[in-house]
Amino acid sequence: MLAGAVGSASAQALPSNAIEAPPWFAQTFLDFGEDIRDAARDGRRLMVYFGQDGCPYCRELMVNNFSQRRIVEKTRGHFVSIALNLWGDRETTWLDGRVMSEKALGRLLNVQFTPTLLFFDESGAIVARVNGYAPPHRFEAVLDYVAGRHEKEGALGAYLARHVRDSASERMADEPFFLPPPYDLQRAPDAKPLAVLFETSRCAPCDEMHRIGFKRAEVRALLERFDVVRFGLSARTPVTTPDGRRTTAEAWARELGVSFTPTFVFIDAGGREAFRIDAYLRPFHLASSLEYVASGAYREEPSFQRFVQQRAERLRARGTKVDLMQ
């Protein structure tokens, strides 16, 4: 069993800078097909965590979530947990037999945020994905969803909407920069990029984004470089999508695979998705995401994390204090 591989001389040991994953995370050969089969034999599922050094959100996950007894017991009881370094060079074997480094696997899986957690079923399908930090009560609900095989009943986002009650506003906040109806989102060649925001009521991260993130002068200035439209995740608001189809906000969100709120989907002038934010972001990372798209940097630098690092270095070189959690 994978748990028995901990301490094995032939298993791949975590590097010393591996984001301080708990000691009960498994050390394996990082052959994911084998890991999934071994977990299934024990009635468990595979959870894969991508982190990186200096990531404050990774620290929040480890310190806040994995310090709570109930979360630890559920994770250890129902999952085999493996930690990967987004920039690591350890050899992994993907489900189709391809051998690649941790960082190459991160690119294959389009990991743009840390932490990112992937939950696999017994066939190797990813049944849940958490991009960015989820606070303990929401993270525990994700564990319950995957451990209980609730993917057979519906999407993770719908499950969380039913089972997670945030202390938050019963109404979605409005902003003066939101486009008014009717929502014809077809793009002209010279149009601004489109930022499509999906929210729900009773969403604490949504409230924080309005209360703090949208109040920052830097964020407001960057938002002026977009056409911004906001929909309720389950709203039946009529929408004409960038490719000219008539649908509803709810149906379009399902097509886009939106599971968490808030989620920003950025669409370029050609009507193609350029990037999305489906993670809990503090203002620095929110501003970085907006600049990543508005500047067109996403076309040259496919890794958002590298862009964030470069942006932070540029700001520090100009004497600007950078706090990734502010």
Overview of this protein structure:
The protein is an alpha/beta fold. The protein has helices at 32-41, 56-65, 69-78, 102-108, 136-147, 156-163, 204-211, 217-223, 249-256, 283-294, 304-317; strands at 45-51, 79-85, 91-93, 99-101, 116-120, 126-131, 183-184, 194-199, 227-232, 238-240, 246-248, 263-267, 273-277. The protein has 2 domains: 2-154, Glutaredoxin (3-Layer(aba) Sandwich), CATH 3.40.30.10; 183-317, Glutaredoxin (3-Layer(aba) Sandwich), CATH 3.40.30.10. It has 11 helices and 13 strands. The chain has a 4-stranded mixed β-sheet with strand order 2-1-5-6, with helices on both faces. Helix 5 (136-147) crosses helix 6, helix 8 (217-223) runs parallel beside helix 10 (283-294) and helix 10 (283-294) crosses helix 11 (304-317). It is globular and about 55 Å long.
